[in-house]
């Protein structure tokens, strides 16, 4: 397997514009679940940039469970992400849900494949033909082996710029939306050379659990975190209950940075 540690013993380091994922760097991808307006994404982009984010997230095409839920602003949101990128200098990441969207992604720096599409093989092959970095989320019922085979689909087409992301799996527990699988981090590190992040927002569904689980991820050796941040979580059009306020996000980031430094010494 191209993605296996056996095939490539050294850690892969992925360059995304002016930032680097893997290789001992702490990646912090922050931003709202969905881009809701130009003003909203600009406000959040400025706030997360000021507080240590290395990349800006924001959904344009949303894979919602119900067809009646907010589906994202689509193309318009991509335009707002471009504006936020221009102003802050942060690279931007957004999810692709259909191969036909790829032609709209010229100014997007990282293409996200969401949990629901982890085994959408047509989509994996298509982003594999692109040279843009891809962030591949683990499906919520997928084994480590299936996760890595999906990354293999991308790499087999020639795209080596892959970042993995554990985002919680389904278990019998209903208190949390999903269960962050911290073991995924050291297991994937052993099996593969690709960097791996942890998304504790989707991984827990509860904003107050994002900080402890993100810290646990970094302690377990994750290359960074993805986190949903909103300037007004109560009014968010999607995933408000798992979104951190800017203040909570800022406090968490400081702890993550300290922990990441400490981890180098122990
Ligand atoms: C997201 O990051 O916006 C998202 C929908 O995540 P997931 O695919 O992990 O559910
Ligand atoms: Mn979300």
Mind explaining what this structure looks like?
The structure is a single chain. The chain is 36% helix and 15% strand. Helix 3 links the parallel strand 6 and strand 7. The protein has an 8-stranded parallel barrel with strand order 3-4-5-6-7-8-9-10, surrounded by 6 helices. It is α/β, with parallel strands linked by helices and 266 residues long. It has one domain (14-265): Aldolase class I (TIM Barrel, Alpha-Beta Barrel). Bound molecules: phosphoenolpyruvate and manganese (II) ion. Phosphoenolpyruvate binds at residues 33, 59, 63, 95, 114-116, 137, 167, 199, 202.
CATH architecture: Alpha-Beta Barrel
Oligomer: single chain
Q: Uncertain spans, ≥5 residues at pLDDT below 50?
A: none
Give the helix/strand class. Answer: alpha/beta
Shape: globular
**Strand residue percentage:** 15-25%
Instruction: Provide the succession of SSEs.
Output: EEEHEHEEHEHEHEHHEH
**Which percent bin holds the helix content?**
25-40%
CATH topology: TIM Barrel
Task: Give the helix tally.
Answer: 8
- Could you tell me the number of beta strands? 10
Indicate the radius of gyration in whole angstroms.
17 Å
Q: What's the main sheet like?
A: 8 strands, parallel, barrel
